[in-house]
Amino acid sequence: MIRRFQHFINGHSTPPNSGEWIDSINPATGAVWAQIARGNKADVDLAVEAALTASQQPDWRDSAANRSEILHGIADRLDSEHKQLIEIEINDNGKRIREVAAQMAGLGGWYRHFALALAKMEVEELTLDLEGVSAHLELIPYGVIGAITAWNSPLMIAAWKVAPALAGGNAVIIKPSEMASASTVLFAEVLSDVVPDGLINVVTGYGDEVGAEIVDADAVKKVSFTGSEIGGSKVATTAAKHVKPSTLELGGKSPQIVFADADLESAINGVMSGIFLSNGQSCVAGSRLIIHDEIRGAFVERLKEKLDGLHFGNPLREDTDIGPIANEAQFDKILSMVDRARQEGATIAAGGSKKVVPGFENGFFMEPTILENVSPYAEIWRKEVFGPVLCVHSFSNKEEAITLANDSDYGLAAGIWTTDEGFASEIASKIDSGTVYINHYRSVSACAPVGGIKKSGYGRELGPNAIRDFMQEKVIWNGKVGVPDPFAR
Ligand code: NAD
Fold first, then answer.
1. Residues of 240-279 as b/e, b for ≥16 C-beta within 10 angstroms?
2. Where are the domains of the chain?
3. Which of 102, 126, 186, 483 is most exposed by smallest CB count within 10 Å?
4. What's the predicted TM-score (pTM) here?
5. Which residues does ligand 1 sit against, CB inside 6 Å?
C-alpha cells in the first residue's frame, strides 16, 4: 500500500479537491514510494481563507509574547520529533542520511532563534530633525505569506521563511516542490497540536497550478520563493501585477578561487564539499574552480584521488558517501549538460557518466565529475548545472582570477583560498556575490543574511532583519505642542 500525503489546511489533513494524486519517486530505486495531493485553486482558496482568519486573531497578530511562546513550542517539538522526518525526506530527494540527519537535528534551532529574536524586538523611537513632534515606528505583519520551496533541502528552506514569518505575526501557506513534498506535509502534521489552526498550511502540487495560484491570491501579501531563475521570474511578474513584494532565492554558478599559497589540504576539502556534498544540488554549489596555474595539475590529481575512495549506495545508510541525484529530470539534465560540454571541447578529468550501483540499478546515480579545458564561454561554465560537476579553469594573476569569477550572470556565493589574510580581504571586496567565504565554505547561521545579487535573486533570508522583512513599517507621529492656526497672519 503506497502512503498518501494530503494537504494540511487549517490544522487538518485535507484531501485534494481534484481527487488527483502525484506519484513520488524514490530516486535510489526509481520506484514510486508515495503519492502527494495534486492541489488546485480550490485547495489554495481554502488555505488562504484559513491563513487569513488565523493571521487576524488579536492574540496572534498583536501579542509578540504569545508568538514567541508558540515558536518555542515548535522548536521543542521538532527537537523531540525530527527523527521521523529524516527517512521521509530521503525517500523523496535521495540526499544521504548524514546530511539530512544533521539538517533535521538543527531544524528546531531555526525556530528557537526567531522566538528569542522576537522577544528582543522593541518599539523604535525615531530621532527626528523636527521640533514639537515625536514619532515612533510600529512594525505590522503582512498577514498571509506564501512560502514556495525547492526540493533539495525542503524543511531547512521552509524554516528560513516560516520561522521569521510567524515571528512577524503572519500566517503561512507553504508550497513545497512537487519533487519532494512529503516531509513538509509531515512537518505540519507533527506540529498540529502546537500551532493554532491556520497558521501553517501546506498545499502540494505543481508550480503552475498551486504555486501560481498562491502568488496570485489577493490575500497573500508577500511571497518568499526559493527555486530556479525561470520560476522566480514568473513569481516576481505575478507579484508585481498585484503590487506585492517578493523575495527570490535563486540559483548560482559559484566560483572557488584557489591561490598558489593556499593551505592545499583545506582547499581540496573545501572544494570537495562545495561541489560534491548533496551531489552538487545546492544553491551555493562551488561549481567553478578558478585555480592558479602553478598548482592546477596537482590539485586536480588530489581531487581525483579523493573521489576514487567514495562509496556509492543507499542514501539511508550511514556509510554511503554518494547517493542518487534527486529525480530523473535532474539526472537527465545533468548528463546532457556534460555531453554538450564535451562537444564544446571540455575534457573529462573524472566521472562524466551514469553510475550503476549494485542493488540500485534503476536509481539515478551519477559519477562526480571534473571537467578541464572548459571555455569561459561554454554553457557548462555559464549555466547552473545543479549537480556534481566541477569545471576547472586556471589563472596566472589575481586580476584574471577576479575577472573570471565575476564574469557570470549569477552572484550567490564564492570561496577564496589563500593563507594571506589581507590579500583575501582585498579579493573578497572585489567579488560580486551575496556571500564570500574565506578559507572555508558553506557556513550558514540564523544571524547572517543569505541571498544573491544579479540573477541569483533579490532580498535576503535570515540575519538581523529577517523578522522585519516579514513586517511593514508604520510611523506614529505625536504632536507635543498645540497646533498653530495655519492661516494666522
Ligand atoms: P523550481 O523553480 O522548478 O521550483 C521551485 C518551486 O517553485 C517548486 O515548489 C515549484 O513547484 C514552484 N514553482 C514552479 N513554477 C512556479 C510558478 N510559475 N509559480 C509559483 N511557483 C512555481 O526550482 P527547483 O528545481 O525546485 O529547485 C532548484 C533551483 O532552486 C536551483 O536553481 C537552485 O539553485 C535553487 N535554489 C536556491 C536556493 C537559495 O537559497 N538561493 C536554495 C535551494 C535551491
1. eeeebbbbbbbbbbbbbbbbeebeeeebbebbbbbbbbbb
2. 3-250+456-475, 255-438
3. 483
4. 0.97
5. 148-152, 157, 175-178, 206-208, 211-212, 215, 226-228, 231, 234-235, 249-252, 283, 384, 386, 412
